[in-house]
Design brief:
The structure holds two protein chains of two kinds. By secondary structure, chain A is mainly beta. In chain A, about 0% of the residues lie in helices and about 50% in strands. Chain A has no helices and eleven strands. By secondary structure, chain B is an all-beta fold. In chain B, the strands form two sheets. In chain B, strands 2, 4, 5, 9, 10 and 11 form a six-stranded mixed β-sheet that branches. A five-stranded antiparallel β-sheet of chain B has the order 1-3-8-7-6, with no helix packed on it. In chain B, strand 4 (about 30-40) and strand 5 form a beta hairpin. In chain B, about 35% of the residues are buried. The model of chain B has no long low-confidence stretch (mean pLDDT about 95). Classes of the chains: A mainly beta, B mainly beta. The interface between A and B is medium-sized, with 26 and 23 residues.
């Protein structure tokens, strides 16, 4: 069964550094998402992406964040200048359409020191 | 925006007993309610979902009920087994463009053999 994949599984970075989190959505899916989960807190929506543009973004998704689909398979989340509070598990998800089930990746644990 | 509350945060049951997890939501426009199961170290996976045009849905030992008037929905697991032990997340969405999911805080279910 096809699955969403994410790399790396764990990323450690210094405050102020840029990080890129990578995701490969399920191949026939058209809608892509990033969520994050700070330890012990809710899974929070960051951004949704369709047809090479952002569909919706949350208040969390400020100018430090950007997303890109650089080729036909990858979907990336870039954080330009990481802060301590960016430490969280970041989940990528994809869906066939804009309604219904979203399939989640295994997550990337980002630790900002 | 939407706010989803989930209770309890932890739940322990004896194998064979039933488990019930409850969620409330605030936005009456929400019309899609998925439940995800996340085993330790693994990705969240959809186990059941319900749309606002039905009040109950069942899939083997798992059922979900929805009360639109009261804005709450519940997950029911009958005849629990040790492999049901996991964190369960409820979510709500109004399925607009962007298809943002609003998650609850999760319930850690432990089934004691």
């Amino acid at each position: 069964e096809p699955e969403v994949t994410q790399t790396p599984s764990h990323q450690v970075t210094q405050m102020g550094q840029e990080v890129i989190l990578r995701c490969v959505p399920i191949s026939n899916h058209l809608y892509f998402y990033w969520y994050r989960q700070i330890l012990g807190q809710k899974v929070e929506f960051l951004v949704s992406f369709y047809n090479n543009e952002i569909s919706e973004k949350s208040e969390i998704f400020d100018d430090q964040f950007s997303v890109e689909r650089p080729d036909g398979s990858n979907f990336t989340l870039k954080i330009r200048s990481t802060k301590l509070e960016d430490s969280a598990m970041y989940f990528c998800a994809s869906s066939i359409g804009e309604m219904g089930e979203q399939f989640f990746g295994p997550g990337t644990r980002l630790t900002v020191l | 925006g939407e706010n989803v509350e989930q209770h309890p945060s932890t739940l322990s049951v004896q194998e064979g007993d039933s488990a019930v997890i409850k969620c409330t939501y605030s936005d009456s426009a929400s019309n899609y309610f998925p439940w995800y199961k996340q085993e330790l170290g693994k990705r969240p996976q959809l186990i059941i979902d319900i749309r606002s045009n039905v009040g109950e849905k069942k899939d083997q030992r798992i059922a979900v009920t929805l009360n639109k008037t009261a804005k709450h929905f519940s997950l029911h697991i009958t005849e629990t087994q040790p492999e049901d032990s996991a964190v369960y997340f409820c979510a709500a969405s109004d399925q607009r463009a962007g298809n943002q999911f609003y998650f609850g805080t999760g319930t850690s279910l432990t089934v004691i053999p």
